[in-house]
Each structure stands twice: as structure tokens, then as C-alpha cells.
Amino acid sequence: MMNFEGLDPGLGDYTPGLHGDLESGLELDPEGLAVPGPESVHLLEGLFSELHSVAAEVGVPVAAAHFDMQEELLWMGNHRGHATSFFGPTMGRYSSFQVHLTDDVRHIQSMETGMLFLTKNNLKCHTRGGLVIFDYSMEEGADMHSLLLTDSNTLLMGGLQSCVVELDLNTVQETQKFSVEVPGVAIMRQSNRFFFCGHTSGKVSLRDLRTFKPEHEFDAFSGSLSDFDVHGNLLAACGFSSRGLNGLACDRFLMVYDLRMMRAITPLQVHVDPLFLRFIPTYTSRLAIISQSGQGQFCEPTGLASLADIFHVNTVGQLLMSFDVSSSKQALAFGDSGGGVHLWSGAPEVTFNDYSRETDFALPCLVDSLPQLDWGHDLLPLSLVPTPLTGAEPLLSDWPAPLAAPSPRCAAVRTPALRSVSSATRPILGPAPGIRQGRRRRVPYKMKEVEQEYDNYNQVPESPIGREEEPHLYMVPKKYRKVTMKYSKLGLEDFDFKHYNRTLFAGLEPHIPNAYCNCMIQVLYFLEPIRCLVQNHLCQKEFCLACELGFLFHMLDLSRGDPCQASNFLRAFRTIPEASALGLILADSDEQTGKARLGRLIQSWNRFILTQLHQETQEQEGPQAYRGASASAPGLSGESVIGRLFGCEVENSSLCRCGKETVRSTLTLLFTMHYPELGSLEKAVKERDFAEVLKKSICLEQSTQAWCENCEKYQPTVQTRNIRGLPDVLVINCEVNSVKEAEFWKAQAEYAFNKALKKEAAEPPKAKDSVPTEWCLEDERCGTEGLAFHTRAEDLRHVWIPQCLKMSICKNQGLEISNWPEGEELSSEQEAEGSSIYDLVVTVPHMLDPRTGGNLAAHIKVGETYHQRKEGVTHQQWYLFNDFLIEPIDKTESVQFDVSWKVPAILYYAKRNYHLKYDLRIKNPIEASVLLAEASLARKQRKSHATFIPLTVSEMPQAGDLVGLDAEFVTLNQEEAELRSDGTKSTIKPSQMSVARITCVRGQGPNEGVPFIDDYISTQEQVVDYLTQYSGIKPGDLDAKISSKHLTTLKSTYLKLRFLIDTGVRFVGHGLQKDFRVINLLVLKDQVIDTVYLFHMPRKRMISLRFLAWYFLDLNIQSETHDSIEDARTALQLYRKYLELSCERPDDFHKVLKGLYEKGRKLDWKVPDSDPGDGPGAAAFPSVMGL
């Protein structure tokens, strides 16, 4: 909200003269609904211009404007407490209702379930159609101005009073109040580090996200603050300055602050009087500055403003009162004092959100006419004639209440005499008690009728006896069930992953939060252009999913069957705002209890990741930003490899019954299946071909209510969709989310199966083919049971989708799709006509399992290039990927969907030999410059506090060089364990660790032992335990505001380690396996020298670094706390000692180890409390400061 103190006093009085010009200058319909623009608006891409204007209520100022974050709606609230919404770029009126009788609407906020409207002392929540959800009244003296939705269930309300109120939206109750300085908070913003509160005194305070306590304050303007915004590491503010006796004057200098350094940078002079400002980040952090007179300007916050970037909103003499920017940054909305709302856009086909859900429109009341009855027909049933009940006599179906009420079965009567007899004559031999855990000769039954509710398929029909009693009735096959990792005292070191994966492909561990997307990560990895694209991509963003996928795919390439974990990718995934807005970030409780709707969730994730990668890989952020996987010349603006691979140009047509047709073109990356409706007279589902249903889903035609500019009202319109080209990979979301779609899929599979049975009966039997076994590990053979590669009719049970499709686009008939025999090629005539063959390469099913809450898996057809890299054979094979379980399967199993437990979610069809069009070479984008000196994120870090000396160009490591490494960690989530009845502890979920410090020490040369990396890793997640005794990390060391350490991002340090690994250096350390696991790095075994194994005897305990340093080096380390520099140096010295002992006396080294273990047992593995002597390691390495 704005502070109007010091402005023209006449701004509060809106006389009829103010809006008289508006009525004469704009064309209004009789109801004052819409202001039609010109017939066609031609917009230049990237340049904003007016798209539409409407007048909601002439003469009443628009106090608040807001773009809906969930749907394509624009909301406004005026000074009379009335709210109105407009749909889409045409701004057709969607809903209009009264929020408050007298007070003005000061702030509007959208939620998933409704809209929040804030007035002076009232908060009201409405549905988007206008129904009231709740009405929350505040104290009489309250003067609220702004809202801030901190999460989906918590809201902050601020105003001109001494407190900020926190409200729980579930209970609609005040949870707590935070005290603030008078005159209060007028504007609130939020980032991932702070709450930002703007005060009318001209100050902006930064507050803690948990406690709301002030952490920092910027004194921006001497008079008052009018608006501010935050993006990334920048805060920009505009306001008024005090001019002595002349009062307040609008300051034409914008104050810009760097949130990393917490200080102001050069103020930005603009050419308009700024009253509103917003960041509109596209390729750069662009600012939009708006004045009250309607003038606006775009400028860079760190550059000079140009007169060429000034624009003007045509308000016909009115003053601008509100301003908002859509989440897609494609649209701007202005509200003026005459009741007009102006929509500006930078794209011809504007969308308010990147991922908008469909808007529900009110359908017209259509009354079905009753069928005509032929009274002359002898067989006409009289029951078709509705007859009312005229008499009061009881009906035959009216059962008496005692007979209708359910009652439990009576238990067997046992008298005391019978009990004594039974106890006295108890047999010595007989059936063991407890078998089947239930009474014999009893049939369990349910008191009420069970409804099979398939909403998200969380329930699977139970057997009458119960699954706990009859395990053989378990419906989900073992390999499809949710896999879990068993933890022991050694963690996962003794867990047999090879039992679940006998291939050389790498699985993914499922214990990380939001690891439900593991199957889709594998899908993307086995698409060769995607694998090459993300491994060639590198940008400067701290959290980039394309970069993190590239790092993860690099590990999957190196792994020889060992599982990897996507911890860094999922860490970046949790920071993406769009993922949170789509509900893709799951709470731990939802994953463990099975409340997550995995079927719908993975389909939303599929749409999200393709769009996100499309956006990230087309951004240009510098010379090292993106090295595309395709060598083709750049095409149109916004083209990317993702767009070429999955993109399909779609033409959407909307035809009103008046004859007006609107056509627009968009790029879509996937399609959703739409199943035919069952007619009112149809009792059974008709037989449909998959190709036919897919064609109607792609070329969708449906009738809906839409705004017609020609008719100037909502009219029934026919919307059709056609495609102009075929994608290389066709992605399909199956949308089997209810019992209706499940029954349709089941019926079609039965039709197809019966047809296959008839076909097989008419043909002679075929001999079985031999089974290739090239995918197995060396010296092993996979079991051939169930892997027959010929297709029998019995194998086609529950199969509806084909393995191959032929697709083409004809000029006359449009899109043509048909089934195609597997293995056959197109003729030259068909290729000349533009036909293409699409092979099924991916199916993602959702397994329904009430015991575990269900899980997701993927069937992937792994291509020849992957087998060539892993096993050195040219072969294609279908595999099941279920987290770390990987198993070869028959091709028919990949398309079998028994919807009672296995529901289809996602399908991928790939054009045959599509990858030949792409450059599949990988050029490592990580350069040696990552090891050079870099700035610290910490404000208080000084060069005098440096603990390391960066490498120079002449010191760049070579293959085989030694590097001492040690890392320290902090705990994000505590371990979850249970105590068994025998007293042993069982780990249910391990603690979630995060790397906090990484140190690398030179292993040779004149500066041997001097660290060249000593990075403290900044984390934005809440730290539960700093483990100071073991890590040396103290609270505040990872905070950029107060830390004196060299603070960097995890991505920056990760790139340094990746460069060292790719160079081929050998890392020396103690317990490096855990370090690399938490850092999420895969290092080949010949590049790791771990001192914990150098001084270890088989079947004996591992020895600590402290004891080894005392025994061999006469060093007393880790006496109070751990220091990674000291630990890395000590590991290097131990390695030198190992070389000395094993080279000089190789036969005696075993005796040395025996002496080590004997000494350890005598001392109980505790280092004696004594000062270290002048051992060989006491002065082996100079200190950093000595250099």
C-alpha cells in the first residue's frame, strides 16, 4: 500500500469532473462491462504495450489490483468495497461481488482454495465465484494495509499499528502477534532469507523468518516510503524526501541495496516521479517504475536509466492508484481513479501464469427434453411414466427399524462348567496356537457396503481373509513394491544393493525427501539428447535444475551398478517457487503415511520439469552459460533443445455460434489423454482403439462457455486444437485418476485381449526365441524365466497400448495416427509423405499398495548407446527401474496395466532414429578458473582472516597429484529409530546431513600441506544440530551477515571438486566414503586413498584418525574440536607413513598393524592425555600464516 501523506490533498476527492473525460474517451457497453480495444493488436516481443482496458465501476477508484497465481484471472477491488475479476487477455468479466459495505479493498491475495480481501479492519475469504469461505474481523482501531502469505496455511497482516498479526488459515484464528515500531508496517515482502517490512517513516526492516525479530534496517528515505520490491540479492525502493517547510516531494532517485553486503549501492536516477515499482526479471533484473500520472519507465537497477524506455498509460486524465505484475512477467495491470483497469503485455499471446489450472465457468441451464412415448406399442413399459405416491399406505420396501439396523454376531455361550471341562481336558499335542491369527470356523464380514473409490487409487480391494493372514494373496508383485534400505551399525556399508540390481546401470536411493521423482529422473537420463544437453549446460544460478541434473547424470555415467542419490538436485528442486506453488514439494509425513497422490503428482512433475528445463537451457547468462547439445544454427527466440525434442506447435481455435473465430498458436511440450464420455443410454464401454483416442486427445474438440467480443457476452463456443508438426518425442499424461477412467482402460484391455485370443486360435503356434543375456554382470547370467521374447496371447492380458505408432499430418485430413507392426520400416512413398514411426520407450506406472502408500516405477527401453558404454554390446532391452531395484523385463510387461494395482501415469513415444539429428558429444563445461580466487558471501570476512591460499595458474593440478581432503557436516533432520524388544536399536530413517565445510590441501610441491580450498557452505535450510564437538562449526559460521569465514555456495565448491575429479587427482583422507556421499559426488576407487582402510585388518574395527595420528605420528589432534585443515594434513602425513612402512619392510607391515591393534585394545582405543612429542609430524607442514 501507498502512503499519500504529503501528496496533493485533492487526491482523496474524486469529483465527477475527474471521470467525465473517461466516459467520453472510452467506448462502454450499456452495462459498463468492457472497453473493447481495436480489432487486432500487434505486439512486438519483449516490448510492453496496451492490450485491453475495462471499466469495472465508472468513477470509483481502483484501490487494489492482483493477478491470480492459480488461474488466468485479473482481480481488482475499489474504494466502495467491491471486487471484480476478469478472465484472460480478453478481460471478459468472470465474477463480481461485494466484499465490504463501506471500506475500500486494500490488498488482494490469491490462494489455492479462494481469494483473500483485506479492508481496514476485516479479512474476508471468498471463492472465485463469490461465495464466502470465512469472515475474520479485527479490533475496532485496526488499520490494516498489507497481507503476506508465508505458506499455504499461514498469513501475516500488517498495518498502521504496533503489531503484525499471524493468522492460521485452517482454523481462522490468530496464532501470535509480533511487535513492530510505530507507525507500523505498510508493505511486506518475503525472500528465502528474510521478511521485508516497509514503514511509512521511510525505512525498510529485514526480519527473521522464524521469530520475526529485526535483523537489519535500511533508512531509505527521509520523508516516507511509497513502494519497494526484492529480487535475488537486490532490494529497490522509491519514496518521498523531506523538503523542510515545503513538506514532502517525490524523490526521483531509487535506493538500491545489495542484500549480500547489506549496504546501499549507487542510487538510480529515473525520469518519472516513482510511486510504484516492481522487478520484472526476464534475461536481466529489470525494474518497472510507475508514476501516479501514468508515466512509466523500464531500467536496470545497476545501470543508467534511458529516456527510450519511458512509456505512458493512457488513463484519460485519471491518476493511477494500483499496479501489479503477473507471475509469468508477461503482463502488467494498472488501476486508475476513474474505475478503469488497463492490461499491458509484452507478448501477443499472454499468459498470466506459467502453470495455470483450468477456470470453471458457469454452464448454461440446459433442460433435456423427455423422449416421446409410443402408446400404441404393445411392449411399452408403463414404468417409464412417472407416477407420484398418492396414498398413505406403507410401501413393501419400508422395513421395520429393528430389522434394518445391523447387529453384530453373537459370541458362543460358554458356561463356567464348560470352561472348567475345557481347561482340564486341554490336549498336549495339537495344532500350534496363533496360526492365521484368527478364530477358526469364523468368516469375517464388514458392517457396511464397501465402495471402491478410485480417487488417486490409494485403496486396493482387500481379500476376505485379510492380507496379514494370507501373504500369498498379496496383489502387488515383489519387484514392483516399494523398496526400503536397511540400516545397520555400519550404515549402508553392509547393505547388499547387488541383490536388487545385477545390471551395471545405477539406481537411485529413495530415503531423501521428495524422492518420488526418481523414476522420472531415470527417464530423462535414458533420453540421449537430454543427457548430453544438461551435461553440457552450466550457468551462474545457484539453484538450477539443469545444472544439478547434469551433475547427477555424470554420476550415473560413472557408476558401475552402485546406486546414486539425487540429494543436491532435490535440494535445488525445493527452492523453485513454481514447484511449491504446484504442490510438488511433499512433507515427510505425506510420503511416509502414503497421503501423497502419486499418480497425479508425477504427471504434474512431468509437465513442470519439461517446462523448467526448456526455460533454463535457453537462458543466456554469460560466456559459460550454456553450450547447447545441438550444433544447429539458432532459430526463433526462445528455441531450445527441449523445445525441439518435445515441442509441438499447436493451433487453438475458438468458434462462437455467431461465426466469430479466434485462432492463436502456442508451443506445448506434452499432451493429456481425454477419454470418451459414456452416453446416457450406453450401459457398457464401447471398444476404442488407442490410436483413435490419442488422436482425439491431441486434436481436442470441446464445447465450453467463453467470452465473445462480437456478442459481448459469454456464449457457447467450440474450441478445437490442431498441431502443425510432429515432435521427436511424444509425451503423454494418461490422467487415469478416477474410477471412470480406470473402468474405460480395463474394458479396452479386455477387448484387446479377447481379440488376441481369437487371432491366436486361428494361427499355428510359434517357437520360442532365445533370450539374450548381455545386460548381466560379468561371469553371471540372468534368469530367463518370464523373459520370452515372442508374444503369446496370454502375455497380452491387461494390454491396450501399442508398442509402435505411425503418425503423419496430411494437408486434407490433418493428423493421422494408426497402430504399426513392431520391427517394420516405412516405405519410401510413406517417408516422402511425411509419415513417421514412433516407438514406445517409456511407461511410468503408479503402484497401489495400501500397506506402504503406493510407489512409482518406470519401464524404460534402454538404447544401444547406453549398453555400449556400460557393457560394450549393441543391444536394446526393456528394464524396470524401481528406485535402486533394476531388472530386465519382457517388452509386453512394459505395457501391461492391471488397474487394480498398476495404473498408467506417463507414456513416452520416440520417433525412430530421432537422436541422429542431435549432436550427442559431451564437452565438459567446468574450466580451471573455478579454482582461482573468488569473493566470499560473508560481509565480515577479511583477507587477514584467510585460512587458505588459492592455487595459481602454475599450480594447477595434474592427473595423479595428491590432494588432502576433509569435510565437516551439520544435521538438518535427526535420525528416526526404534528400540526393539531385545534392546537393539533399528534405524528407520537416517539423519539428513548437509556439508558445512570442505577443505583441500596441497599434497606435493613447495607448499605441501597448505590448503587451497577452505570453503564454508552457506545453507538456506534450517540446521537442527551444528555438531560443533565433531565438526568445529559454530552457529553463525554459515550466516552471511555475521560470519567471518570464507562463505560460498554449495554449487561453487562442488564445481571445484568436480574439476579436481575430472582432472584425475588422487584424494587422501580419512573416511572419504561418507564425505563424498553427503557432498553427492561419485569418485572412482583408484582416485581415493582412504587411511581408514590403509591401517585396517580384515574383520577388525576401523580406527579413528586421532588414534592413528597419536600412534604413528606422535600428534595429539582433535583434543577439543575437529578442524578440517588439521585432519586433511594428518591424513596426508599418515599416507606418507604408510608408504614408508610398506616399502621399507613390506613383510613386517602386518606385524605393525598387529601391534597397533594390541595397543588400541590395551588403551580401549583412547588417546592418553599427554602433550604431543616432537614426532615426525609435529612440524611437517608450515602454517598458512607463515607463508
From TrEMBL:
Instruction: Answer whether the UniProt record assigns the keyword Nucleus to this protein.
Output: yes
Q: Which UniProt keywords apply?
A: Cytoplasm, Exonuclease, Hydrolase, Metal-binding, mRNA processing, Nuclease, Nucleus, Repeat, WD repeat
Q: Which GO terms describe its molecular function?
A: metal ion binding; nucleic acid binding; poly(A)-specific ribonuclease activity
**All residue ranges annotated as the USP domain in the record:** 506-912
Return one Gene Ontology term, BP aspect: nuclear-transcribed mRNA poly(A) tail shortening
A Pfam family: PAN2_N
| Reactions catalysed, as given in the entry | Exonucleolytic cleavage of poly(A) to 5'-AMP
Q: Where does a divalent metal cation bind?
A: D966, E968, D1075, D1127
Q: Which SUPFAM superfamilies match?
A: Cysteine proteinases (SSF54001), Ribonuclease H-like (SSF53098), WD40 repeat-like (SSF50978)
A cellular component term, taken from the record's GO annotations: P-body
Q: Does the record's keyword annotation contain Nuclease?
A: yes
Q: How is the cofactor bound?
A: Binds 2 metal cations per subunit in the catalytic exonuclease domain.
**Enzyme Commission number(s) from the entry:** 3.1.13.4
Cofactor dependence is on: a divalent metal cation
Q: Where in the cell is it found?
A: Cytoplasm, P-body; Nucleus
- Cite the PANTHER family for this sequence: DEADENYLATION COMPLEX CATALYTIC SUBUNIT PAN2 (PTHR15728), PAN2-PAN3 DEADENYLATION COMPLEX CATALYTIC SUBUNIT PAN2 (PTHR15728:SF0)
Q: Assembly and partners?
A: Forms a heterotrimer with an asymmetric homodimer of the regulatory subunit PAN3 to form the poly(A)-nuclease (PAN) deadenylation complex. Interacts with PAN3 isoform 1/Pan3L and isoform 3/Pan3S. Interacts with ZFP36.
The record's comment about this protein's domains reads: Contains a pseudo-UCH domain. This ubiquitin C-terminal hydrolase (UCH)-like or ubiquitin specific protease (USP)-like domain is predicted to be catalytically inactive because it lacks the active site catalytic triad characteristic of thiol proteases, with residues at the equivalent structural positions that are incompatible with catalysis, and it cannot bind ubiquitin. It functions as a structural scaffold for intra- and intermolecular interactions in the complex.
Family named by the database record: Belongs to the peptidase C19 family. PAN2 subfamily.
**What does it do?**
Catalytic subunit of the poly(A)-nuclease (PAN) deadenylation complex, one of two cytoplasmic mRNA deadenylases involved in general and miRNA-mediated mRNA turnover. PAN specifically shortens poly(A) tails of RNA and the activity is stimulated by poly(A)-binding protein (PABP). PAN deadenylation is followed by rapid degradation of the shortened mRNA tails by the CCR4-NOT complex.
Q: What is this protein called?
A: PAN2-PAN3 deadenylation complex catalytic subunit PAN2
Q: What is the lineage of its organism?
A: Eukaryota, Metazoa, Chordata, Craniata, Vertebrata
